[in-house]
Amino acid sequence: MKNFADLGLEPKVLRAITELGFEEATPIQAQSIPIAMTGRDLIGQAQTGTGKTAAFGIPLINKISKDTDKIVALVMTPTRELAIQVAEEIGKLTRFKGIGSLPIYGGQDIGRQIRALKKKPQIIIGTPGRLLDHINRKTIRLDDVETVILDEADEMLDMGFMDDIQSILKLVPENRQTMLFSATMPPNIQRLAQQFLKDPEHVSVVPKQVSAPLIDQAYIEVPERQKFEALCRLIDMESPELAIVFGRTKRRVDELSEALQKRGYSADGLHGDLSQNQRDTVMRKFRDGSIDVLVATDVAARGLDVSGVTHVVNFDLPQDPESYVHRIGRTGRAGKEGTAWSFVTPREIDHLHLIERVTRHRIARKPLPTLAEAIEGKQRIIAERLLETVDKGELNEYKGLAIQLLEQYDSVQLLSAAMKMLTGEKRDSDIQLTPEEPIRVKRRYNSGKPDLRNGRRPSGNYGGFRSNNGGRGGYNRDRDNRGGYNRSGGRNDSYRDGDRKPRTSGSDGRRSSKRDESYNS
Ligand code: ADP
Ligand code: MG
């Protein structure tokens, strides 16, 4: 049953869904909504971008009575950005029904949240840390909560929220409906579900291939020092409408976006060290097309929901296959085509094969674009831009001089010179980035029989987001940044929440169990 109209929803909810432009239910929605509507507990597993928010949001909103002024529903999300994103979608779905909802997250002034709570929202969407804060201050009471949703549960546990979630769930009346949604189902999620869900129905939409088939995947073998040149050629050749280029570290992102700008590309960088204001500015520019290359770390790009990304480039190969899947999933969204390119240094070929095995997808090897291909690509774009300008008209002011010039010079010469100018000379040609160490795969992973299946963390560098640049990886450090958050208005892009506990030891274990899951699924 794919048609929303067949689900027996209230007309007001159905109307909101129509307004959102959803034509039919996604598989996870089609499977989850009828079960959720019976009041049963539910575990839903599906990849990122499959519509899990509406999968719980629709039955939730359908169920809530408009007349109550109590908090009757609690949604927990891992990050402030996801809290905002979910709250936005819930807000749209409640439009005609008139139910209040409020996102609650760390980093925002708590006084402001307390004032907003006085408006008696029925649905709270919050990050665990800040929720506990409010519970302790008695500004949020869970006594009347009838529905609890754990959204992106795997991410929440990855971020060390297990204790907080447990404390919160113990405060919600037992006679409730609990739904847990997650992209992966590592053992710690299963344990959490066992502890807090009652006889849950499992719904799982696990694609045969981990990565979306609409995405063209290719790799280019290129030495570390030639990566930048390769990137420029690739961009020139492919002339992406919107591209996300992934770098391994924040330093990498800074250097790379700066280098691209020097070469005349409209590029900018996104990572955890930027203030919220800076991030918002970058994202706005990317969305409205005033930059067309976004350079980002994994963390900064997680959950990023920008439509129309035509290209993803892994400038550096990610540490683990799951990140690879997350990264390339930024393109090819909403059924559109996308292309993912990866730069692989000669020593990282084994790591690439590991990614191929885990994702069960062969990644085609392509040669480095030649200079001629790059130039041709660039010229094609310039020609397109010229023709667009012709189509737009309003050229009268230029025509006088054009006629004069054409009387004196050859038309082909003139047009070529104009195109050369538009193409832009390459400035600052000797750009050198700080090299990144290659990712090395421990020998046993190359055997074709990785012993990751037994759940033990490998001793090698491959495990747990530990990066090569010493100590804690970019993942952790990005996440640690809580600087200057004070949001004004929601965005869809997802950044890590500052509202969380510091990671303690054992995080690697969590990571590796998550990885086991993707090996087994
Ligand atoms: P997930 O939580 O599974 O990662 P989201 O709930 O964030 O996915 O949904 C991803 C995107 O898909 C959102 O922009 C959402 O509005 C959109 N979406 C959800 N359901 C549908 C649908 N049935 N039809 C079209 N778009 C949808
Ligand atoms: Mg989600």
UniProtKB/TrEMBL annotation:
Pfam families: DEAD, Helicase_C. This is DEAD-box ATP-dependent RNA helicase CshA. Residues 214-376 form the Helicase C-terminal domain. It is found in: Cytoplasm. Residues 442-521 are annotated as: Disordered. Residues 2-30 form the DEAD-box RNA helicase Q domain. PROSITE patterns: DEAD_ATP_HELICASE, HELICASE_ATP_BIND_1, HELICASE_CTER, Q_MOTIF. A motif (Q motif) lies at residues 2-30. Belongs to the DEAD box helicase family. CshA subfamily. It comes from Paenibacillus albilobatus. Its EC number is 3.6.4.13.
